[in-house]
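Here is one chain, start to finish.
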Amino acid sequence: MRTGAPSATAKPSQRRVMRRWSTGTVLLLGPVLALGSAPVTAHHSFAMFDKHRTDRIEGTVTRFEWTNPNVRIEVAAPGPQGAKVTYKIESASINMLMRNGWRYNSMQTGDRITAMFNPFRNGRPGGLLREVMLANGTRLGG
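Its structure:
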């Protein structure tokens, strides 16, 4: 049965190579594994959002997803031509929002809100949340 340790019948040069490779592997993989276990905060580019523009909508929450990696809010609001449009707005992670005062029950389906967001560059309704104002006047950063 092979254990990975140099066998007693191996030539001295083979034992040195195997021992050196094992030490080198540990020295190389140790820091790599340590870095790989760090929390990952970046998961996609923000290039899809127009950070030089902020849109504002007033509408009704139709969906509120308290999930990682992004909390998502869908809001039914009048679009540019007046017809009702569903805006898909994403925000930061749960951890980041909680630091800004959010809780899992900060809003519910049916709540009236005002949302300020950086819109998608491609014109889709929605974007990256900057701030939301709840019906009671509470402001929460995105």
